[in-house]
Amino acid sequence: MLGQQDVGHRIVVRRIVGIREGRPLFSDALGELVELDETHLTLSTAHGPLRVPRDEVHRAKRVPPARRPTAAAVIELELAADEAWSAPTRERLGGWLLRAADGWTGRANSALPVGDPDRPLPAALDTVERWYAERGLTPLVNTPLPLATPVGAELDARGWSGRPPVLVQTAPLPLVTAASPTPPAPRGPGGSASIRLATAPAPEWLAVVGDRKAGLPDAARHVLTAVEQVRFAHAYADGELVGMGRGTVTGQGRWLGLTVIEVLPAARRQGLAGRIVRALGQWGAEAGATDAFLQVEQRNTAAVALYRRFGFTTHHTYLTRVPPH
Q1: Cis geometry, peptide bond prior to residue 146 (ω within 30 degrees of 0)
Q2: C-alpha dist (Å) from residue 281 to 39, 147, 201, 244, 272
Q3: Looking at domain 167-318, what is its CATH homologous superfamily?
Q4: Whole-structure pTM value
Q5: For the chain, which terminus, N or C, has the lower number of CB atoms within 10 Å?
Q6: 4-62 adopts what CATH topology?
Q7: How far apart are CA 186 and CA 155, in angstroms?
Q8: Of 117-121, 128-132, 162-166, which range is least confident?
């Protein structure tokens, strides 16, 4: 049970909120423990302070503090993410990956410099530039930080710029499935939507992705579907698609990857994105995954706040580097 030594730490609390048919109903909360007395505990959560009577607490435990990941941990996660968003054209440059998908999305059309390229760094980057030029593509390099700091320094010297920072965030999967990120949804398309998981995306699902990402070539369909364990979340209200998401299990079964989490404008601010994340999290847990990851632009503060409620914290960041021309 919690004690005063836990005050100031991040904890997850499972509380009893009622009884149905003789069985307790539970709700989970995640936040910083700011006060603990004989009768109550108080959490600072993403929704504000939450005061919980101690006799309602079923169990509570401290969430381990985040540690700076090792180089091996960054490489493991980057390779799991690559497997979850797999480009149809790919080659090895020593330990580096060269990836192309007819220009569809930066992630699938960039070099991933993890490991040793088996040649001096300037020569490796010269090879990257030639490889993409031969395919009529702008060379891009994804630089996980701080792992790829030397690569970034060489690109700086060549005058390359960077796109906005991307946060690679992770969470223990039990936190994702247990989280209660929003209060009951109000009436509206998002609140009344039903969520279905399928092994293939529906045409309307693909249509939304095509609109958001400037088309949907054959290479894009490969990126989305060429994963052994994948589920596509479809949220429907009155027969119309109002929300969507994609979950993959990669990295030797450890990692649930969350991508393409999208809610259409008419259904936003009703908790639907959280319901989609939770549905995919439950599928990932059933598939044997133990941890979840996602990638979100640092400037997308609304999405970062949503994922924080599910226990996601930043594992590392990366920059997509772009040549001066």
Answers
A1: yes
A2: 33, 28, 18, 14, 14
A3: Gcn5-related N-acetyltransferase (GNAT) (3.40.630.30)
A4: 0.79
A5: C
A6: SH3 type barrels. (2.30.30)
A7: 49
A8: 162-166
